[in-house]
Design a protein that fits this description.
Layout lengths: L9 E17 L2 E15 L2 E7 L9 H9 L2 H5 L4 H7 L4 H18 L3 H4 L8 E2 L2 E3 L4 H10 L5 E5 L5 H11 L4 E5 L6 H13 L4 E3 L18 E4 L18 E4 L1 H4 L2 H13 L3 E4 L6 H4 L3 H4 L4 E2 L17 E2 L2 E2 L9
Parallel strand pairs: 5-6, 6-7, 7-8, 8-9, 9-10, 10-11, 11-12
Antiparallel strand pairs: 1-2, 2-3, 4-14, 13-14
Length: about 325
């Protein structure tokens, strides 16, 4: 059934560039800006927004993501809702931007907050991790010392030399809880030594130590620190194969293809006994806001993207130190 002109949803999408404060470095390289794609869906004078970050690791580019979003103009005009969107587009950044934009529009049409519409508890402030970029032991220790007042630090590691890096970081932040992200940079050969170094430093969680698809060793080795899947997990379909290898899963809306699947995935992951981590790419508060609904049931929250930018967008999330507050309606939801 075709929508009447007054009810027709119109779509606008664009690529935006947001400078990073300094440089953000992980095992795959460094970048100085966050390139995001924003989707806006409008209907009856109301507009919903969503933001995504195309990730080269999964073959995504800003240009292709923008094109995929724009291709949904006709289905949206024909009445496609969030439920139909799940079948129409594959999981990934493009669907995330549209899914979150449609959720935002739903909330505005109803005059309610999105969590009320979804039957979820109202989000409360959560402590987010703050990321320390990969570098030399000395550089990482210096950066860590400046952030040692934060309760939770996420340390980017990169393979050889990681034992020295994490020891230096721990010395620089003796009271902070530490989680580690290796971004697939470890191998079966250095896995045991790096796990021990992290255990010795009192690390609480290690994200994706081995490459996705080459992580069988995690099932054969004693894990002295909890291990979290990131690149090895995308949506609900990928959960079952992780049992025995991982203790936790990192849910990112750009991987799940939006809030709709992310909420369902979080429920399914907990049912399978996994701890939940909610993660992000480097992006503005518009990308973080929907993730605050997942953060409520997450053991680890990593929504520091806006803190790494030179400037956030207007009406951004409120951060007080490491405490991140739920979004105002002016931002999203």
């Amino acid at each position: 059934m075709t929508s009447s002109p007054s009810q027709t949803i119109s779509l606008n999408a664009r690529i935006e560039h947001w400078p990073i404060a300094g440089t953000f470095t992980i095992s795959r390289g460094a970048k100085t800006e966050a390139v995001v794609v924003v989707a806006e869906v409008s209907q009856g004078g109301l507009m919903g927004r969503g933001e995504c970050v195309p990730y080269p690791r999964y073959g995504e580019t800003p240009e292709a993501t923008l094109k995929a979003i724009q291709a949904m103009q006709e289905p949206l005009a024909g009445g496609m809702d969030r439920t139909a969107l799940q079948a129409r587009m594959p999981a990934g950044a493009a669907r995330n931007a549209l899914d979150c934009a449609l959720a935002d529009l739903e909330a505005k049409r109803a005059g309610q907050r999105i969590w009320n519409l979804l039957g979820r508890p109202a989000p409360e402030p959560r402590t987010t991790a703050y990321t320390i970029s990969l570098g030399t032991s000395e550089a990482m220790a210096e950066a860590t010392a400046k952030a040692a007042h934060r309760a939770l630090l996420k340390i980017k590691l990169g393979g050889d030399g990681d034992g020295a890096r994490i020891a230096a970081v721990r010395k620089a932040a003796p009271r902070s809880e530490l989680i580690v992200d290796a971004n697939e940079a470890w191998t079966e050969h250095n896995l045991a030594a790096n796990l021990k170094a992290c255990a010795d430093a009192g690390v609480t969680l290690i994200e994706q130590p081995l490459p996705a698809g080459k992580d069988e060793a995690l099932a054969r080795i004693k894990r002295p620190v909890a291990v979290c899947a990131d690149e090895s997990v995308h949506d609900r379909a990928s959960l079952a194969g992780l049992r025995g290898r991982y203790d936790a899963v990192n849910i990112k809306l750009d991987k799940t293809g939006g809030l709709t699947e992310a909420l369902a995935m979080a429920d399914a992951a907990r049912a399978l006994g996994f701890e939940i981590m909610i993660g992000c790419m480097v992006a503005t508060s518009l990308a973080m806001a929907p993730a605050m609904l997942i953060a409520q049931a997450a053991r680890f929250v990593d929504l520091d993207g806006p803190l790494l930018l030179a400037k956030d967008r207007d009406d951004g999330l409120r951060y007080e130190g490491s405490l991140v507050y739920p979004p105002d309606a002016a931002l999203w939801g």
